[in-house]
Predict the structure.
Amino acid sequence: MTTSRDVPAPLLESLKSLGLTKYEALVYIGLLRVADATATEVHEISGVPRASVYPVLDHLVQKELVNVSHTVPKRFDAVPPEQGIENLMRRIRSDAESAREALEVFYREKELIDRGARELIWTIYGEENIKTRLAGILRSAEHSVEVLATRDLLYETVLPLLEPLPESVEVEIITACRDEGELPSRFRLHLLSLTGSMGRLLPYERSGVFLVDDARALVWVGEVDGQPSALYSESGGLLLFVQRHITTVKEWAMTVVNNQPGNPSSVYRSTP
């Protein structure tokens, strides 16, 4: 008789992560070890309680992991692992897509909420979470995107997120850049190269300020407790702060350019 102790724990956990219960995993593994078996024999080879065997077999048939004969008594046979795992993955993908569509309905309902409910500033922790939120607001851009970012953050994270933007969205970037040609020319952008000044504007190595359509703002502020963090809001307060900050930086940078002609550390470029 097979028991759970005869089956490697990591294997059981893997099958459970694919949507099987412990008993379903034991029965499927047990059937893989024999040509076919009756329900009574399944109980004996799997160690699953007799009263649970039929419900478990029914579930495995529904999950396309077990075939059943039209004989008396019925005999059961396991689907080969390659096909069985593919069947499980197909169900997972289908369930995930259904869940995504259902969750999107709830998410879109937020657009109907009174604007006053959005007067919040959210703190986001973890680089992947920040990138996901940033990617989302950039995808929503209809008119303009303004970026003030350190060079590393811009090239490692931000530029790939800007790639899908349509040509109709004007992108304005402020960064420390050794060569104005480093930024893709296909973007409609204004570039202010502030090589010697970014340390004062953005004190963290990977930080940035992002404004989308003057309606959504994200401030990547560096690390808190060892992990990156950011502030995100659609509230008027943070939007006004970000707008004024970016405008002040642009005006200051242009003053540097005008007062120091030929200074290679401060360059203004407009690409149509």
About this structure: The chain has two domains: 4-88, 118-271. The mean pLDDT is 82.
